[in-house]
């Protein structure tokens, strides 16, 4: 893991920023997001991929790409969370009365 | 928390650019990651002892193929690669190098190179052995054809190093270690080399033994060349020690009365038994030739050249073998020198005087037995006598002044007669010769010094 992070630091920061932007937008975006069912399926898919990665069942380059994808995805989620949380604080401060 | 889920449900659009980034990242980084991991794995294995190491990286998975020299070494190598940061999986394709049974190692020397073959237990030892061979034979090509195998006996390296030290002492040959048995064959480079090798083999490490040591000594060669033009006798080759050297040099200077003895002999061990006797006898035969070569090689004596007259040739052909020890071989190629033209009595007298000035007919002390060392000068005297067949010759004997006059008188007569007998035996008619004894009555030098006495003891030839 430390090797993957240090080797792909630029791409991970990119993912983090992308996530930050997405999180920033998501707070004020109108409309419905994914349905609960879809979200659950997506979570199961993500968990399965994480499990596959830890179990080393995917061989060779595909295994490496899977690990890389998951690390980037994790950074994206972290970025989203931070972005959304910050935006939420900004929004709640500017509209204290509401 | 609910808020978070609400926000998270709207995060999915970002996955599309994320996927694109992922694609680019994978596209850009796969080869660099593989190259980096390959380099790191190789670096990590640098200190491990492996042969035929091949590292292939697929993504972050390393396939390690190598020949290890022990089970432990094999395991260590795999663990080392597994611990390289970034490596995900190691595909273990290592194996143990095959075990050699029996474990054979060879060092072979021929004219142009030293070839090391068979098995060595470790790559580093293989290098060390090759280096040691190079150092030992300095300048000669060393070909390394050794393979690697397990199963070397304990202390193999020490034994192989000791044997490599011996390869320099061989002219050609082969040294083999089969498990703990050592075989040697070939020819030593120098005299004494065989003995030096045998001595060194006593230091073989514990557990090793000599199965066969068939190293031969080079032939022990002694050569003498008589050159009548330069008036020299050149002695080359070996003698066993300084005493024999001195004895041979003295004997040669007595036998070769007209030639200068050029002594290029070297002392060396390894001489066959009775070397001294055989060489002295052979030099006696050479002294009777006008030109000739003597080669003594181990126990074989070869004499070739020109005798002064037919009788001498026959005598040398027949007689020399008798003087040698039993197990010696004698080969002669004796021809007869073309007879010199006849001359008259005056020239004959001059030739006799010249010969007897250069050399002397020697006798045993106080007796009339001719010393065998005088065969050379007698042959020359006979050859000269044959050139003036019509002349009569007085053979005069003289002694020094030691002892009673009557004894000296009788001794001088007997010695003169002994010389005539020798000449007659060689084929000259007895009627041409008269023996006269003068005792000590006609000295040519003072009888008060040893040198003077030696000059007075003499035989003279007078043409009548």
From TrEMBL, chain A:
Keywords: Membrane, Transmembrane, Transmembrane helix. The chain crosses the membrane at residues 6-27, 39-58, 64-86. It comes from the Bacteria. This is Uncharacterized protein. It comes from Bradyrhizobium betae. The lineage of its organism: Bacteria, Pseudomonadati, Pseudomonadota, Alphaproteobacteria, Hyphomicrobiales.
TrEMBL record, chain B:
The keyword Membrane applies. Residues 350-464 form the OmpA-like domain. It holds the Pfam family OmpA. GO terms for cellular component: cell outer membrane. InterPro entries: Bact_OuterMem_StrucFunc, OMP_bac, OmpA-like, OmpA-like_sf. It is found in: Cell outer membrane. This is OmpA-like domain-containing protein.
